[in-house]
Predict the structure.
Amino acid sequence: MMPLPFAEPYRIKMVEPIHRSTRPDREKWIGEARYNLFNLKSQHVYIDLLTDSGTGAMSQEQWSAMMIGDESYAGSRSFEKLRDTINELTGFPHVLPTHQGRAAENVLFSALVGEGDVIPGNAHFDTTRGHIEFRKATAVDCTVDAAGQTGLYHPFKGNVDIQKLESVINQYGVERIPLIIVTITCNSTGGQPVSMENLRAVRHCSEKYGIPLFLDAARFAENAYFIKIREEGYANRSIREIVREMFSYADGMTMSSKKDGIVNIGGFIAMNNQELYRKASAFNILFEGFLTYGGMAGRDMAALAQGLTEAMEFDYLESRVLQVEYLGTSLRDYGIPVQEPFGGHAIFVDATRFLPHVRKEEFIAQTLAVELYLEAGVRSVEIGTLLADRDPVTHANRYPKLEMVRLTIPRRVYTRNHMDYVAAALKNVYDRREQITSGYRIVWEAPIMRHFTVELEKTF
Ligand code: PLI
């Protein structure tokens, strides 16, 4: 008997047209965009793999929840529903809604982080690092070394190296470390998960030194899926149980709901400590809005409560991770160097191995991302030197260990045919890689988070 193949646990009810274009069109548009893919109009993109943030498709249950959103300024029913869902899912009693993930970081760090502080973690996301450096504090990356070797198999490349963490604590002293942040999954190393064993070890360290542990939980459900599939002892545990255990090792969390909340906008902070909650509440009111909406409409909170529940369904998670794996396998079969094992939300292409003739000073990963757009209208994103930004003290470019192009898959949006198209497009670029020998130089950049708005010109 033939084994039944995998298929998505949903069907399509509403469609959004997307359009192909010609190469001369794309040459004109990317030039006008100053070779920055963030500057492109979405109608000039055929397949948009810029991000999985806020780009997912909501379910019929989420759309119907929106119709009963309670838009009261204070005491909204939709907030209560959301708070109850988060309490049940995470175990944290105190919840502050925010308009997105970086807003949660802004509010929490306003309450916790000061000048000269040091915040260790596993390859902090760019907005997290941005909010730390904006406060003249320092983010220290303590990720395991295996994360930097794209060809090496390690099931949990998001893990924190406990020895590195301890040596940061000993070097700077507990009084300069207001919190440890562990990002699940670790976006910056390739959507790589953190194991339960590692979370327990970080918890042990945080208790030993009395330093609070917060999870940056944007992709908590995908992390739980990998624990179930890859970690010994979890195969028979439900995603819900795994999620609850992950959060039990932390004092709190920040969340960008635009990822595993499967909504288009939203975020929150959740925590155990009431005193910290009260302190952070003042900043929430100042920056985000009253405590029962925090920058979200009632209908957004209603959709989020439903989305968080759907994100923990095993069949959904399996189809998502297998779609990402399908793209990764196709690329690997073409010989294209990618971060392995494949991550939860994206395939990360190793641009240094892909384009060995482009100098790092000319932004290798950005050069590859532009080539992919020119080839087929596929928008990806650079996770490399532009994103790594300049050192806040020396202002020199920071060259990260990995120069990557991220092909980020929105939730429940694209089909297998779209994945085939992307893989073929990248293969065409790979076949002509020997002719790509130069990249770009910066003509304008912002003083912080430059990659969003940077303007470039060709060096050739
Ligand atoms: O985009 P926000 O402000 O809702 O969330 C910021 C944020 C925080 N943590 C992590 C791990 C993220 O991945 C993240 C946002 N990520 C984006 C936008 C991405 O394209 O990956």
